[in-house]
Amino acid sequence: MRRLLCLLLLVLALPATAGALLDSRPSSTLGSINNSADFLPVREAFQLSLVESTPQSIKLRFVATEGYYLYRHRFQFRTDPADVSLGAAQLPKGEQKHDEYFGDVEVYHGVLDVELPRTDQRAFTLAVTYQGCADKGLCYPPETERLNIDGSGDASTAITWSWRELALFFLAGIGLTFTPCVLPMLPILSGVVLRGQVGGMRGFNLSLAYVLPMAICFALLGALMGMFGAQLNLQARLQSAWVLVPFAMFFALFALAMFGVFELKLPHALSSRLDRIAGRTEGGSLWGAAVLGVVSSLLVSPCVSAPLAGALLYISASGDALGGGLKLFMLGLGMGAPLVLVGTGGAAWLPKSGPWLVYVKNAIGVLLLGLAIGLLSRVLPGQVTLLLIGLLAGGVGLFMGALEFVYKPPRKRLGQLLGMFLLFYALACWYGAFSGQTDPLNPIGQPRIVAGNEQPRDVSNWQTISTATELDRALADAKSFGTPLLLDWYADWCISCKVIEHKVLNDAKVVERLKGYRLIRFDMTASNTEQRALLDRYKLFGPPALMLFGKDGIEHADVRVIGEINAADFAERVGKANDRF
Length: 581
What we know:
Elements: H1 2-22, H2 42-45, E1 46-53, E2 57-64, E3 68-71, E4 76-80, E5 95-99, E6 103-108, E7 111-117, E8 124-130, E9 132-134, E10 138-139, E11 143-149, H3 163-177, H4 185-194, H5 200-232, H6 234-237, H7 241-258, H8 268-280, H9 286-300, H10 305-318, H11 321-343, H12 356-376, H13 382-399, H14 410-434, E12 462-465, H15 468-480, E13 485-490, H16 495-504, H17 508-513, E14 518-523, H18 529-537, E15 545-549, E16 561-562, H19 567-578
Parallel strand pairs: 12-14, 13-14
Antiparallel strand pairs: 1-2, 2-7, 3-6, 3-9, 4-8, 5-6, 8-11, 9-10, 13-15, 15-16
């Protein structure tokens, strides 16, 4: 039963995960009520730092938080004084992104390194302008940051790690300890390292002497990946089919190993040599424990290679050698923490090895297959990806006994019922794929909206303004006449604004419920200082945003929309506001 529940939880999470990977467009159903907390301030979403300043060049690093991206064509670099000259910015190739309103653009996720050739050795101020968006459907106005560049060529280093990340890596290391080929090693290693001397300060010292060198080996690997990963620009290279497909096959291969199709281990010649080194090492001494720790880091690496590869890929995107080393050091400490616990006399607290480890292996295998499908979704058509998701869900459903119509005890019947649910979901995915659908969260799709439900918006009903004075006047006029008001924050460079303009505010039901409203569009395409001050006044990060004001001129803040929203949900918000009039 534990196996069934583990597999069920993982597979139920796969459609949501795959949905995010399938489509780079923001969700049309995002718009939760007053969802300001869903978005970060611009300088938290995009972190700029000066990595290196030499007489020959200036190296900048942008770190886009997960779920955010930067536009290549929106970068600008200016100097103050203006007569200080810089060469053309050297930007790597970005990820291709197609939008039905803006066409083909290049964007950057993760870490981006920009190099500016330098010909003038004077000190100056570098003004860096950039613009990005959130995958959830919010576009930030162009942002400008100023960096002081001195004439000496001193360098500064960017730090991209936090204590929270280190804690997460430590917890991940503890989780890796309970994998099928690591947990059984604990009593064996405790016998070799501790020589039966469990407990007390000596046991603690010996176990720590074993764990620290193992963690240091992982730290060296993380530092190397952090140092060279950013130079390889893996984040952009991973968008190529030549990289994504091998990585997907890599995860699928490890999934087969988790299912017991074959045993994953080091080549016999290498493993036997390491075994001989471990056998000749004197147990019970600090030096011997340290040598065993180094050897063990090599022995257990194949067993945890898939999670370790994911960690290395994450570290490579940070471009921070120190942070990468610290993160994998904490991963190694987490893997060794149970041994320290055993060494100090806490063996009774650890779960015993048994059949439940097989359930863990199978659950990890399902998760790895889900990751493989997620990677392939970036290069495969959406219908093919939906077929693969259905295949995975159907396989798990059959494994849970969906079609085994024989007598079973009550617990297994519940597992069979859940397996049948997954099988029905798989059939829905296959039907949707052959019907042209691509969304795993809605595989069958929605009935096609008839053409009459969408009508061109009457532009004459909308007043477009662009200054704070005009906005204040419009709000005051609406209040004086007792007229409710809709304020639409818009910009030409905002993709999601176009979606709302064409697919939400045009909807017949929305138009009907907005009758009697004064319709104001605030155009902040220029994104000047005055307009940005208005964003601060209303606690907005950028467009799109929809604000409803009552007849008394007070905003109904609980129905404010930030980011994209679909027509049905927005019509519901307007109806909720109308009920208060």
